[in-house]
Amino acid sequence: MTTYIVLLGPPGAGKGTQAEVISDRLKLAHISSGDIFRENLKNETDLGKLAQGYMNRGELVPDDVTIAMIRERLTRPDCAQGAVLDGFPRTPAQATALDGMLKELGGTVRCVPYINVPSEVLVSRLSGRWTCQQGHVYHVVFNPPQVAGKCDVDGLELYQREDDQPATVERRIRVYLEQTSPLIEYYRERGLLREVDGTQAIDQVTADLLAAIQKG
Ligand code: ADP
Ligand code: ADP
After folding, report:
1. Is the CB of 16 under 6 A from ligand 1?
2. CA dist list (Å): 106 to 40, 101, 162, 164
3. Is the pTM of this model over 0.85?
4. Which string of DSSP letters, residue by residue, matches 85-144?
5. Does residue 125 have an active-site annotation?
6. Residue 171 pLDDT > 90, yes or no?
């Protein structure tokens, strides 16, 4: 049986942080649409060049391009048991497309944990976020690395994302409220939404998420 879990929540809610742990515990692939775009940006692929402007402005990359990218990712061998989706879907069109893709693969979305964090907390989370090229995430205050500026997992140099500066963060939160938050209702109507308090300590959020997923 394949298990597909969609993590929903605003930018800075902790989706990436939690997806890393949960995918490891449940032996599922971790699919981060933002990480795939950033990888393409780094490698200067056509997809990366197309996505760059949207990402720098804090807007969403168009649905057709994003959906095609995730479709390809979901068919890779490491997704045979399923996946934790982090950052996709972000629009109703993407959610409908995901349902179609999973049907083709013989699966469905099993549950949608919604990591709820109020907007005023998000700015301080994102302005203190440091990341490595492999997508491991830290926070200067809330989750610092053991050695300043270095990733605990792979020793790579940490950097701050361009789109984490305050003006772009505000834009991204607005885009989330307008285009992504309707998915809360979309999944609630289907009985799949599981709300988790994302303002708690990281370990407590993990525990709540695993409990919510176990309940199905
Ligand atoms: P998202 O993928 O939803 O944008 P991240 O996982 O990248 O969110 O987390 C955003 C920032 O907040 C990171 O710096 C991360 O270390 C920090 N963070 C994540 N979860 C928590 C938490 N429960 N409490 C405090 N800080 C957190
Ligand atoms: P965050 O961790 O703060 O939620 P992400 O790393 O998920 O941010 O996304 C960074 C950027 O990549 C987004 O602002 C957007 O431009 C693009 N992006 C990521 N996922 C999607 C998606 N599902 N649809 C459209 N654009 C996306």
Report:
1. yes
2. 29, 9, 38, 37
3. yes
4. EES---SHHHHHHHHHHHHHTT--EEEEEEEE--HHHHHHHHHTEEE-TT--EEETTTB-
5. no
6. yes
